[in-house]
Design brief:
Blueprint: E1 3-5, E2 19-21, H1 27-37, H2 41-45, E3 55-59, E4 62-63, E5 77-82
Parallel strand pairs: 1-5
Antiparallel strand pairs: 1-2, 3-4, 3-5
Length: 87
């Protein structure tokens, strides 16, 4: 099952855990699985069903423009990071 790494700001809402094994075939399904384990996390990570502004998601070390709809495999690692702007 995919492993979802918890951003430091959300760890207090997940019992201090740094990563959680989740179910799902997409990032959104993985977040729903996280929500089942730690109610209230989804609203902080994905308010209104979309990725919080200023956050990006990586799957298997690749930043994905597909965000929550990105497919994941049972071996995937999912990370949420602050988006970094360039110029």
């Amino acid at each position: 099952m995919p492993r979802l790494f918890i951003p430091p700001s959300l760890r207090p809402f997940c019992g201090g855990q740094e990563e959680v094994v989740v179910e799902g075939a997409t990032v959104l399904e993985a977040v729903h699985s996280l929500e089942q384990q730690h109610p209230g996390v989804m609203e902080r990570l994905c308010p209104e069903g979309t990725l919080r502004a200023g956050m990006s998601v990586t799957v298997d070390q690749n930043v994905t423009p597909r965000g929550l709809s990105q497919k994941v495999s049972p071996e995937s690692e999912i990370h949420f990071l602050p988006a970094i702007g360039g110029g």
